[in-house]
Amino acid sequence: MATVNVYNKLMQCLLDCKATIGESECVNLETCIDQAIEKLSKPIEVAVIGKISSSKSTLVNALLGEAEVVRTGQMEETFNVSWIKYGDSNGDIKVFFKDGSMKEVSRRDWIRWTSHQESNELKESVSYIEVTYQHDILKRINIIDTPGLDALSEIDSKNTIAFLKNVHPDAVVMLFTKSIAESTMSVLNDFVSVNIDSSFVLSPLNAIGVLAKADTMWSVLNPKKDILGEGKRVISQTLYEKYPEVRHSIFDIFPLSALMGLAASTISNDDVVCLKQLSLIQEPMLNEMFSSPEFLFDEEYAVGVATEERKRLWQKFGMYGLFVLVDYLKQNTLATRYDLSQVLMKKSGFESFQRMVISHFGDRSTLIKAQNSIAAIKEACLAERQRNDISNQDIHTIDDIEKKLLSVLLSIHEYQEWNYLTKIYTGKEKVDDSIKKEFLTICGENGASAYERLSMPSSSSIQDLKEKATERALFWQRKYNIYSMTNPSSASIIKVMQMSYNVIIKELEEMDVKMCEAKRTLNECMQFVYGETVNVERL
């Protein structure tokens, strides 16, 4: 509901700004406003950025739950930018050329536009490829798969840089390798050097990091090792402690296995049959086989699963993924394909990452798009003021537009939250840790749902949530009264936080009314159809 209100306010403001221009000579400003209106109406654009062979395409496919939406491989595969939007999964792809032309191409011929076997002339002519796929996430988020910033082919890197400059994304997911410190700083420096647009400032609000091959840290010598926990330790000790400034650019870095995340969606019944056969092998032999790919593929092991099939399973699940599934089947012999899929999702770290992408980018899409667009409009206003031929009427027009923008931003509470979040992440706002921690939580940095923002159990009732929100609102109101006299700078953020609780209270009250109405409607339906009511008190 809040997101809809924010969208409506911003869209109306932009339409008013466009109407204000009227017959003025502020042509470039009008174009900028038109672009902002168009951007606000579309899904947020999230680019996947990283070095070559960092599992970018595998991660994209995993998000979409399909193995071949974009090409993957052991070697460098992607040479053109693939812009993936919601649409027909079997429809033609659109090839956009650098000269401004476009060509529709059958999906069967897609390999021609992505394979490194093709000529450099073909590569050099293409700007990006638009691909449609029918997945709910694409209704909210357009995903952009890019060639590696350090691609072996100079053309590939140039394609990425040119695209980022010309069609700059709203947000980014950055992929890093096991040498996390070195690769992170390298990717960040490469990305910053692109200088996408002055309106786009890399921050924790529009950037998430991924250690995408966490499964490679696994070894049969320590088979029960917590890979995700180890990944978090590596990230903390080798990156955050060495380069604390990274926290000003990236919200968080998630260790995960993109390979296992993809396999969770694509595991087949045939896979399950082979995995169950492998689970019958005694542990000494199984551990020996899992010690290296060479042993796993060794034809001397007569285990009821052909060598080629073992190789296929290894390519699909990885060694750690295979171990996780086989180990689970040893303990749960009746496990189904769905059960194994859920195990992979959890063990891969992909479940929490996917949830974070949707909540961090999707739930904030309006604000992220607005932030970039409004910054661009402000720059356009400044450029118009510097025109040699500017008239007094044009100056009045620009003044009016700037006032409209300021007025709407001040009226949107979520934007006030955003503003302070930006200041905190960039180090421009210094607040006590206790204030910072709760402010980040109530603003949705640890999850966008009401119970997550209030640090309550997921089983909490609406009444429980309202009571907690009311208690914290009163607490921070008392704090504000004290801080307003002793620490005015902290008082401002406390005021915003108090308002955040009040906003949640209002939304919970509205949800409570709707829940009561829904219960009455359901009972009426049950009474009509079955002649009885249903207990819906916990709904």
Structure commentary:
The structure is a single chain. The chain is α/β, with parallel strands linked by helices and 539 residues long. It has three domains: 41-257 and 353-360, 3-Layer(aba) Sandwich (Rossmann fold); 268-344, no CATH class; 430-539. It is 58% helix and 9% strand. It has helices at residues 2-21, 27-41, 56-64, 120-125, 137-140, 154-166, 180-194, 227-240, 258-266, 269-278, 283-289, 293-296, 307-331, 337-348, 350-362, 365-385, 392-411, 413-425, 433-442, 450-453, 462-486, 488-530, and strands spanning 44-50, 81-86, 93-97, 102-105, 126-133, 141-145, 171-176, 207-211, 253-255. Strands 4-3-5-2-6-1-7-8-9 form a nine-stranded mixed sheet, sandwiched between helices. α7 (180-194) links the parallel β7 and β8 (207-211). α1 (2-21) runs antiparallel to α17, α9 (258-266) runs antiparallel to α14 (337-348) and α16 packs antiparallel against α17 (392-411). The protein is globular. The mean pLDDT is 85.
CATH top level assignment of the largest domain: Alpha Beta
- Supply the number of structural domains: 3
Unreliable spans are none
What share of the residues does DSSP label as strand, in percent?
Answer: 5-15%
Q: Helix proportion of residues, in percent? A: 55-70%
* Rg, alpha carbons: 26 Å
Distance between the termini: 19 Å
